[in-house]
Design goal:
- The chain is mainly beta.
- About 0% of the residues lie in helices and about 55% in strands.
- The chain is built from no helices and 11 strands.
- Strands 2, 4, 5, 6, 9, 10 and 11 form a 7-stranded mixed β-sheet that branches. It has a 4-stranded antiparallel β-sheet with strand order 1-3-8-7, with no helix packed on it.
- Strand 5 and strand 6 form a beta hairpin.
- The chain is globular and about 40 Å long.
- The relative contact order is 0.32.
Length: about 120
Amino acid sequence: QVQLEESGGGLVQAGESLRLSCSVSGTRYSAEDMGWYRQAAGKQREFVAAISPGGYMIRYGDSMEGRFTISRDNVIGMVYLQLTSLKPEDTAVYYCNTGGFRDGTYYPSNDWGQGTQVTVSS
């Protein structure tokens, strides 16, 4: 079975940065599209970013405004999300996912990690 484990979250002040990591095992990671989603308390899960196996296709959610960067290391099975210029509205649990691009749009699968909490104070 696919196993995803997110890490790197924490409590930071507005304007600071965090680097989230997702360890992937139990799947052909190098051949899979990967994505990040987030879910704030009382809100629906929101698309953050996605990346294709070779990194040639990358998509970001509309709310990211160039502040987030997704990357991956296929050799060690890791996906990263660099968060910069964090705002209080970025507070959420961040999840990684094995999904797929279809006609340029990323669609998540049913495989999710436990998530990592990011809390941004004013």
